[in-house]
Amino acid sequence: MPDVTFVNSSGTASTVEVPDGETLMRAALKENIAGILGECGGACCCATCHVYLDDASISKVAPIRDMEEQMLGYVAAPRRDSSRLACQIIMAPTLEGLIVHLPPSQL
Hints:
The protein is of the alpha+beta class. Helices cover 12% and strands 20% of the residues. Strand 1 and strand 2 (13-17) form a beta hairpin.
């Protein structure tokens, strides 16, 4: 299982193991990572699982699809080039060591 590190807006990091095939959002919810709400349950229709990928992690993740691109227009925190929705990131061995930063707010 790949390790993922979640860094909250205060800089505190939590590293968790995530099973292959699990979305980053579901893993965060299971591990009680504060800052990921996932109100729509992963349907890509609420933008409450917004994360910022670490610079070293951007190239590891699959490109943004159209629906995610549209939903990123509704995020509460400022959108950045590294913005993604955690519900659209599906864990795989190639994502070992992924680092994501959480915005200060999802609402």
